[in-house]
Amino acid sequence: MTPSEFNPIDPALENAVQEIRNDSVDPSVIAAAAARVWARLAPQAQAASPAAPPANGAAGPAAKGAAPAPIRNCADFQALLPDYRAGRLPAARATLLQDHLHECVACRHVYEGKVAVMPAARPVHRPNYTVRWAVAAAVVATAGASIWFAVDQYGVRTGHPVVEAVNGQLYVIAADGLHPLAAGQDLPDGVEVRTAKDSDAVLLLRDGSHVEMRERSGFSTSGPANDLTIRLARGSVLVHAARHRKGHLYVSTADCRVAVTGTIFSVSAGAKGSRVSVVEGEVHVSQDNQERILHPGDQAVTSPSIEPVSVKEDISWSRDRDQLYKELDKLRAGLQQIHLPALRYSSRLVAHLPASTVFVASIPNLSAYLAEAQGVLDSRLAESPELRQWWSDRGAKIQPVIEKLRAASDYLGDEIDIAAVLGPDGKVQAPALVAEIRRDGFADFLKQNAPSFSVQTRGGLVVFGPVRETVDSLAASLDSPESIQGTPFFARIQESFRAGAGLLLCVDLSRLVSKDHPDALPSVRYLVCEQKEVEGHTEMSASLGFDGARTGIASWLAEPAPMGSLDYISPEATVVAAATVKSPAAILDEMVTLQQRSPEQARKVFDDVRNEVGFDLRDDLAATLGGEFSISLDGPAFPVPSIKLVAEVYDPARFESTVEKAVAAYNLHALSTGGKPLRTARETVDGRVYYMIAGADPNPLTEVHYTFADGYLIAGLTRALVSHALQVKSTAANISHSAQFVALEPHDRHDNFSLVVYQNLGTTLAPLANLLGAFMSNRGGAANAVQGLANMKPLLIAAYGEPDRITVAGDGNGLGEGIAGLISGNLMGMVGNAVPFPQFQGTRRQHSAFITK
């Protein structure tokens, strides 16, 4: 049912109300009712002493038996307050005053001792004839029943809307001017409330929805609680819509209408049009008889002159957003403190698999881990109202998933394996799961919760999966004479278990791709990926194994060795890449060989280069290098990037002579073709020689300054950068001793790297990202990509070249981030990114909601 199909007023009730309005009462009935009322009130008024003070507020009792002064406005009611407090007010007037205090906020604040701005005087119409009192009683009874029915049956709050918080100034826009509103005051219906400049406010509507207002924003509300409408006149609001079992919450602007329930979204109304951004739930946006449904991360604009922005940017002004981010960070930190299951040093399951197995993923039973994660979540929810409100929508979807995972784990043993085997046709069959049975009933549990899965039990083991043929085949081959135990693949798996296994994935690549296949990698045999907890840190690694010693390009990476080039890089560096490679001359030989040239042809290539440039590329240049180098961004990125190159040089004199020959050859060619020669310079400062090579036209981006020190070439775009590198080396305060760098290093058996890549670009790129984002169109997600650079987390990746394998490792908490992704509503988040939510980054394709080409 669409929002337009809901009718907020029942036709029968509307007809009854109309009849009451049109009802006319005979004057004689009115006169008789007035006489009866006066007969009851007159004796009480005459018996009262002292009488109520006169309407003008003058003190002193009235003459005994005098008629009470009439009550015309709020001032007359406030004049009765002293006698009311003292208990001297007649019962009739006390009843009238009590009724007025229930209706009038200003007089109630005066009675409670609060300062309030007096509203404009208005006539008080109190019909006193019998029929209207009967109608009023019926209306009250009907209203009471309606409130009960709405709350009990549909969960719609019908209380007074109130101002929950104000930062700055919040006003009511009334006919007689602006009236300030403070926290705790009732929110008037049908009139506009507006925030002043540099002000914001949080309001609770009568349906239970919360609205956060940005500065210079204004809106009014109308309609019943189950179909409440927010009329946004200007500015921006962030709405946490309450759940409606019947009806919707609407937000209307000058050019669109939004219909929601149980959703978090923002709406902006400006001179150029409107923008709607969705944080959670589903939103229906209507404009010009067209409707579009938006989901988390989606955005709609109503004018071609408004460029969409990321949802995260659109709600960046919200105070609630910052608080929610803090609570989510605390939740993620709590999840990261949960320890993974203990490392396993053997496997009872893998040995049962057949020899045709080519894929094994071994996973520890996560029942205890999930229980701890649930405990952390429950604790944070109990402490944080912001997190409870965020979870109220997601928990309904995700909580059952977590509970089913825990329930399934209770039936199974300490290890669960996912295995795939080669079929008779030589193709890989669909994978199936294998586990030990801890207690009976798993088959019934699986039938109830995953009816599409097949299940087979055999000798205390259970095999299950979505493909029946695979399950039956694998179950039949368990403990077959042709077991995996006699294969080299099993030996490699056992090697990982002996070192302690957490989450383990092993693939026999040598049997998946034929050696004759054009895409086959020469001598590649195994891929092994691991994730495990070591000394409180979660380590992730991937190892590519070879059939024997590494050859070809795979052999270029040297075995782990000390990296002296890191001694010249400061702890403030934001990007570092350093590596040790085997002999540069040998790499150059192999590069020529890869072009399918014979040794004689390779030698001719080097001779041709020497004849053209005047030096031997291999013997005069590559042979002078030691095989270790680093490149870094060590300082400001703008306006001149602080790029620094440090390379190991065994023969600095020969290297410099080769550089001079190369510059001379370039200049000779430039002069012969009408070009401009390079500029060179040599300067001695404090006993050290600095060299410069620069373009013909002065430009700091085309200059290279360098020097030699302790067997290394140190180069940069400015001489100051080179001098700074030498100073870092002399103080020993370098990147390898940085707390940030050390904290990210993998905890493993290696004491050196073959290659290391480190980045901490977030703080460096944030100013540029903000500047570019303000001027960049977001078509194709370009602005989102630029903004994402400012949010990059520090990262370190290490690689180790061993005789028969290359291993890449990094520090991280992939499983903790995966669980955080799971409870944030993204089931694929088990292998995804951490909280806070991906949808805050915006949609991948930004486009207008109602604009067509």
Structure report:
The protein is an alpha+beta fold. The chain has four domains: 26-128, no CATH class; 154-306, Jelly Rolls; 350-550 and 809-841, no CATH class; 554-802, no CATH class. It has an 18-stranded antiparallel sheet, with helices on both faces. It has a 15-stranded mixed sheet that branches. A hairpin with an 8-residue loop joins β28 and β29 (703-709). The two termini are 30 Å apart.
Short description:
This protein has 853 residues and is of the alpha+beta class. 34% of the residues lie in helices and 25% in strands.
Question: Which key phrases capture this entry?
Answer:
853 residues; alpha+beta; Jelly Rolls; 4 domains; 18-stranded antiparallel β-sheet; 15-stranded mixed β-sheet; 25% strand; disordered N terminus; disordered C terminus
